[in-house]
Write a structure and sequence with these properties.
seven-stranded mixed β-sheet; 15 helices; GMC_OxRdtase_N; eight-stranded antiparallel β-sheet; 26% helix; alpha/beta; 545 residues; FAD/NAD-bd_sf
Length: 545
């Protein structure tokens, strides 16, 4: 297996094997393009989608530069085993939130710097189900994708090998196996498995993008529990270590600390000419034959709207008022249970055990689609937020905090439905670059609320069945997708099935904003698979022309 992986991605073997975790020589020797060079492709954003695009197309011989507004992280010097000391990993630029159910933005749904939010994600990487691609025709809600699950199957398998993913054989959706065996289970996972067995619910260990044993020069997981703070060990996969080294080795440039402010457009041809960006307080313009935007579901629509021209007065690619629409979050209620024995839920990766037994529409229920459940294992600051959200404060809060080691915590991901009015627009407020910031308006529908209640009930039943004497649930929101969705035509989306924009034929969007629905699965793996497919199609199109 490793030889096949290495043939298409050498990143794990390009990392040093001397106790450090960054190939500084590779970064020092990185190819650097001039702004005046008309490169083949400039990519905006260096997270899940942008990094895969850079790596795949650099391997295909393209001249590629990936620009990111944040830094080029060094795990040794930039990441710490501390919750409060890790807030710089989040995108904290100003944004406006509104709607009946406004969504807080930060650690749970945004990232900053090379690697994007995968630097601080939990490492959980399930696939979408085949049903996710046809929710309208199958369940009468949402929308059908212009592609099928089968179009992504081989890309899912490829990326799972490159991360790599560890987990038990997966029985849900399209049943499949994983390249690495599952990790041992800690206290939190044991409680989940105990409750699931009592209730007759199938639960499995994994899938996590965390090495189980060595992989190339990547170290194995040491179960320190700081996955959400940036994995200093480099056992947890993020594009910073899984795709960027190989991209650099094949001639790509990663240009960090470069905030892209606008996409350049030729008013006569309507084609993209490159990107305007600010670096070190200086404005630049990088010329390119093609542009790929991978800024994710808030910043991608914002960039398109801020790139308005005489030809596109309402924003780039927005002739049919589709940019920013159908943005979705996942409902993510979190339920904790108190046990007499010590659980110490922090002593393992947060997502250890999960179930997708409630993922599909159940005709006997009063709602459509479903939810998944997984262990989440909050560290102390996040645990304090959970407890205080229940109204506990002062001496009461201190008592719950001192009791931390006795608690087990589960989290659900509920499939909220795409709605046109859940969208990003431009606010009157501007950022430090003088650009209008994004306003994100969100309102839950009745189906969304019913899913949240159902997920809470199942999680509380699981913990009670495992022996919990007390449970408490808080409502949360997680991952963002949508905002520039793929569709069959420009009246219903922003890009086509290959991620090429309908309006500008040399502009691609390759991040989570193109997903038409979100399933009950964490989106990272699907974003990477969609980007890998887009790069494949783009490379093939060029070789045929």
């Amino acid at each position: 297996m490793s030889n096949d992986v290495r043939d298409r991605n050498d990143s794990a073997w390009l990392l040093p094997n001397d106790g450090t975790r960054t190939n500084h020589q590779l970064r020092t020797d990185m190819r650097r393009f001039a702004d005046t060079d008309e490169i083949d492709l400039v990519i905006v954003g260096c997270g899940a989608g942008g990094s895969v695009m850079a790596q795949r197309l650099a391997r295909a011989g393209w001249t590629v530069a990936a620009l990111d507004a944040g830094p080029f992280w060094d795990p040794d010097s930039d990441w710490v085993s501390d919750e409060a000391g890790s807030h710089h990993l989040y995108w904290t630029e100003p944004r406006v939130i509104s709607g009946s159910d406004p969504v807080p933005l930060g650690s749970n749904n945004s990232g900053r710097g090379v690697g994007g939010s995968m630097v601080h994600y939990a490492g959980y990487v399930p696939r979408f189900h085949p049903s996710d691609f046809r929710t309208r025709s199958q369940d009468g809600v949402g929308v059908d994708w212009p592609i099928e699950y089968s179009d992504l199957r081989r890309y899912y398998a490829d990326i799972e090998g490159e991360l790599p993913v560890a987990g038990q054989d997966w029985p849900w959706g399209d049943p499949h196996t994983y390249p690495h065996r599952p990790h041992p289970v800690g206290g939190n996972g044991q409680m989940f498995l105990r409750g699931a067995e009592k209730l007759g619910i199938t639960a499995k260990v994994g899938p996590v993008a965390i090495t189980n044993g060595r992989f190339g020069n990547r170290a194995h997981c040491i179960y320190r529990g700081f996955c959400l703070q940036g994995c200093k060990v480099n056992a947890k996969a993020s594009p910073l270590i899984t795709h960027i080294p190989d991209a650099l080795a094949h001639g790509a440039e990663v240009r960090a600390d470069s905030m892209v402010t606008r996409i350049g457009i030729d008013e006569n041809s309507g084609r993209a000419t490159g990107v305007h960006y600010v670096r070190g307080g200086v404005e630049h313009f990088q010329r390119a034959r093609m542009v790929a935007v991978a800024g994710y579901s808030i910043e991608t629509p914002r960039l398109l709207l801020n790139s308005a021209t005489n030809r596109f007065p309402d924003g780039l690619c927005n002739e049919h008022d589709q940019v920013g629409r159908y943005l979705m979050v996942q409902g993510a209620p979190q339920t904790a249970g108190r046990f007499d024995e010590e659980i110490r839920m922090y002593k393992a990766p947060p997502p250890e055990v999960s179930t997708e037994a409630f993922y599909e529409t159940d005709p006997s229920k009063g709602y459509k689609r479903g939810f998944s459940i997984q262990t989440v294992s909050p560290l102390p600051i996040t645990w304090a937020e959970h407890v205080s959200a229940q109204g506990h404060w002062g001496a009461d809060l201190r008592e719950y905090m001192s009791d931390y080691v006795h608690w087990s915590t589960l989290g659900a991901l509920c499939e909220f439905l795409p709605q046109a009015e859940n969208r990003v627009t431009l606010a009157e407020q501007t950022d430090r670059h003088g650009l209008p910031v994004a306003e994100f308006s969100y309102t839950q529908c009745d189906n969304d609320k019913a899913l949240m209640r159902a997920a809470q009930s199942v999680m509380e039943d699981l913990l009670h069945a495992a022996g919990a004497s007390e449970v408490m649930t808080i409502d949360r929101a997680a991952h963002l997708v949508g905002g520039a969705r793929m569709a069959n035509d420009e009246h219903h989306g922003v890009v086509d099935a290959s991620c090429r924009s309908f309006a500008v034929d040399n502009l691609y969007i390759t991040d989570g904003s193109v997903l038409p629905t979100q399933g009950s699965a964490n989106p990272a793996l699907t974003i990477m698979a969609v980007a890998a497919r887009a790069a494949d199609l783009l490379s093939n199109r060029r070789s045929e022309s």
